[in-house]
């Protein structure tokens, strides 16, 4: 396992013949630098060849050949990941699915949509809304592909009320590492027919099979959306209010927390002022429903609760313009923080909802302990926190030392609070050491056993997730 064949001219000629269009096959100097890394850029390695595929049949033919020849293959969507999942660690073949971007069917009777993996999240959301439907998963990176979202089980801001990507994937067409095309799941609402292989593919980060088609569940489109921006005197008061909101049973669509310093980064990045400046800490809540009256009844209860807990004010965003202004700022946080420093690394740990306040306080205090800047924001309603460790002007050596120290301490604290290493970004290549430390050896053994069953030659996205 792991003795891979180095691509030669014969292999390249075979691939070009399968594709039949040389413009969709990139070799050597023609491979764009972007294919060597993902959005964060910390893990870098060039593939020997990049193939822009257009069908499951093309992927199948390439996988069969790669399996016979023992050539490593890396799946790739938009490359917006943050943990090196789509980086060709062992070089070889990279299969880019961005041209597989068709909506294949909208089935209004079964409330499903069938799409190719290269469809972008923002394209899918816009398409279904035009038809009065709603696809709830809402990861921050709207230019990510659906295939990538499924591969990492992406979550996003609406997980509080609606759940994550896994909850909306009903069926998958998958090319297995040996090139066979198969289907897992389908349009049935219930299914107790053996092991759920579909759910193994979701979140497997392209290590078990190559997603070529997805059947996704849709909901009727909520008619009204209203957000509340709630300033608090301190971050602690803001975070301490979240469990009270959850206990009130008036579940918002999203509960986000944010601090002034991250808001200021977003303002600079967008060149637009944030709607409120009176506080250092905010909760941003979203509510949806079929009428203004229905939503008002829910948010009125939450607004009163927040004021009782010490909120300074409750600002209601009930126009499309205000709504867009608030959520555009929230959506820009990652890029804004990235632009405020020379380099950064990220942690997207998840803890139980009632331990969020402890984790946020710990992150805030940790900056002094490790002497490095850490900026954080996150999905306070589902416990998924994003912490960004900033390099600034540190030397490479000092950065590596302080960053590693900070990460070890953050993951240790998350584990202590009964949390997990990743809430939605995945493990990829970069976060493997922390997964190994956080899970029992038996769990890691089972994961690698599953990988061995699907991919005995270890050619599909090798050395990712649980593999040494």
From TrEMBL:
<keyword id="KW-0285">Flavoprotein</keyword>
<keyword id="KW-0274">FAD</keyword>
<dbReference type="InterPro" id="IPR016164">
    <property type="entry name" value="FAD-linked_Oxase-like_C"/>
</dbReference>
<protein>
    <submittedName>
        <fullName>FAD-binding protein</fullName>
    </submittedName>
</protein>
<keyword id="KW-0560">Oxidoreductase</keyword>
<dbReference type="InterPro" id="IPR016166">
    <property type="entry name" value="FAD-bd_PCMH"/>
</dbReference>
<dbReference type="InterPro" id="IPR016169">
    <property type="entry name" value="FAD-bd_PCMH_sub2"/>
</dbReference>
<dbReference type="InterPro" id="IPR004113">
    <property type="entry name" value="FAD-bd_oxidored_4_C"/>
</dbReference>
<dbReference type="InterPro" id="IPR051914">
    <property type="entry name" value="FAD-linked_OxidoTrans_Type4"/>
</dbReference>
<dbReference type="InterPro" id="IPR036318">
    <property type="entry name" value="FAD-bd_PCMH-like_sf"/>
</dbReference>
<dbReference type="Pfam" id="PF01565">
    <property type="entry name" value="FAD_binding_4"/>
</dbReference>
<dbReference type="InterPro" id="IPR016171">
    <property type="entry name" value="Vanillyl_alc_oxidase_C-sub2"/>
</dbReference>
<dbReference type="Pfam" id="PF02913">
    <property type="entry name" value="FAD-oxidase_C"/>
</dbReference>
<dbReference type="InterPro" id="IPR006094">
    <property type="entry name" value="Oxid_FAD_bind_N"/>
</dbReference>
<feature type="domain" description="FAD-binding PCMH-type">
    <location>
        <begin position="43"/>
        <end position="221"/>
    </location>
</feature>
<dbReference type="InterPro" id="IPR016167">
    <property type="entry name" value="FAD-bd_PCMH_sub1"/>
</dbReference>
